[in-house]
Amino acid sequence: MVPDKNSVLDALKTVRGPDLEGNIVDLGMVSDVFISDAKVYFSINVPAERAKELEPLRAAAERVVKALPGVKGALVSLTAERKAGAASAAPAPGKPAHSHSHAHSHAPAGQPPKQAKADIPGIGAIIAVASGKGGVGKSTTAVNLALALMANGLKVGILDADVYGPSMPRLLGISGRPEQIDGRIIVPMENYGLKAMSMGFLVDEGTAMIWRGPMVQSALMQMLREVAWGQLDVLVVDMPPGTGDAQLTMAQQVPLTGAVIVSTPQDLALIDARKGINMFNKVEVPVLGIVENMSYFIAPDTGNRYDIFGHGGAKAEAEAIGVPFLGEVPLTISIREKSDAGTPIVVSEPEHVQSHVYRDIATKVWQEVQRHSARKAPKITFE
Ligand SMILES: Nc1ncnc2c1ncn2[C@@H]1O[C@H](COP(=O)(O)OP(=O)(O)OP(=O)(O)O)[C@@H](O)[C@H]1O
C-alpha cells in the first residue's frame, strides 16, 4: 500500500536538520508533500548559500522516503525561497532582483548573497509567456514562439507552468511519461527537436486541478531544476493565465530573463495585459514586449485580410507604456486545427504567413533578451 502524507512526514522526522539540530520536518523545511502514482514529490527549503553543502541532506530525505514500503520513487529538490523581508535576499539598490549572478559563487567574500534565485545550470535565458487572462492564445503563442526561436537556430526548451490546465502534451502531440534517471532527474519529453516538460506528463488529466499553492510551487521548481534540460540557449515558460498570487509567486521564484505578454486587441483584454505588465514590474522582471494575438482575420478561401477585432490596440498600448511591440498574429482557422492536431504551424507549415510572423517575433524577442542580458553585465561599483 502506498503511504500517505503523514507517514512520509513521520519518516522525514528521522532526518536531522542542517548542523544536526532537530529534524527537517519540525524545523519547517519540508514543503507540502504530494503523492501521485506511488511517487512522492516534495522540496526542502534551505538558505541559498548553503544549497551545495546541503545536498547530502536532500539525498538522505530521498533515501528515507524511497525506503518506505509501497513507494515507487521520490523526487526531492532543494529550494531556496526568498522570504518576504529577509534582508539577505533583498536586491541591492539599483540591482534588479532577477540578476543572474550565482548566489553562492559570485558574492564577494564575507558578504551575504544578493539574491536567492539561482540560475539553472546550462540554461542561457528563461522567458515567460504570460497573459492577463485566459483564452487569449498564450499557450499557442508560447509553443510557436519556442519553435520559431529554434527555427532561428537556437537550442530551446519549453516548460508548461500552467499546472492547473497543462496544454503542452496536446499542442506538441506528446503522450506517455518521462523517464527518470536514478529515480530523480527527469528526462524531458521531446518533439520537433523541442524539449518539453509539463505537469500533463506527470499526472493524469484531472489530477492537476486539485493541486494547491505550495504543492504547485514545489512541483514547478522540480520541473525546472530536476529536469535534464542539457544545454539550452533559452527556455520558454508557458505561465498560467492571470495575475493572481500564484502567478506572482511563480514570476518571483523562477529566474526569469524577461516576459512576453500576449493580448488580444480589444480594450478589455488590454486592461488585463496591463495588469500582467504591472505584475512583472513588481517583481522586477523586464517585459520583453507585447504580442497581439488574433489581431486580424485571414479568410481561408481568398486569403483576404479583415481588421475586424480592433486590430492595433496592443501596439498603441505598448507604445503608450513604453514596452516593445513584438508583432501581430492573425486569427486563422489553420492555426487552431494545427494546434489541436499537435502539429504547431511553425513546424507543419513553415512558409505560412503566420509562421513568418512567429519567426519575426522570435527574432525581436531574442534581440530584447540580449539587450537585457547586456545591461545585466556586472557593473563596477564603489562602496
Ligand atoms: N491566432 C489564432 N488564430 C486562431 N485560433 C487561435 C489563435 N491563437 C489561439 N487560438 C485558439 O484559441 C484557443 C485558446 O488558445 P490557447 O489555449 O493558446 O490560449 P491560452 O491563453 O493559453 O488559454 P488558457 O488560458 O485556457 O490556457 C485555442 O483553441 C487555440 O487554438
From TrEMBL:
GO biological process: iron-sulfur cluster assembly
Binding-site positions, ATP: 132-139
GO molecular function annotation: 4 iron, 4 sulfur cluster binding; ATP binding; ATP hydrolysis activity; ATP-dependent FeS chaperone activity; metal ion binding
Domain of life: Bacteria
Region (Disordered): 86-116
Keywords: ATP-binding, Hydrolase, Iron, Iron-sulfur, Metal-binding, Nucleotide-binding
MIP18 family-like domain ranges (all copies): 7-75
Pfam families according to UniProt: FeS_assembly_P, ParA
Gene3D superfamilies: Fe-S cluster assembly (FSCA) (3.30.300.130), P-loop containing nucleotide triphosphate hydrolases (3.40.50.300)
Segments of skewed composition (Low complexity): 86-96, 106-115
Function statement: Binds and transfers iron-sulfur (Fe-S) clusters to target apoproteins. Can hydrolyze ATP.
Family: Belongs to the Mrp/NBP35 ATP-binding proteins family. In the C-terminal section; belongs to the Mrp/NBP35 ATP-binding proteins family.
Subunit structure, as described in the record: Homodimer.
Protein name per its UniProtKB record: Iron-sulfur cluster carrier protein
Lineage: Bacteria, Pseudomonadati, Pseudomonadota, Alphaproteobacteria, Hyphomicrobiales
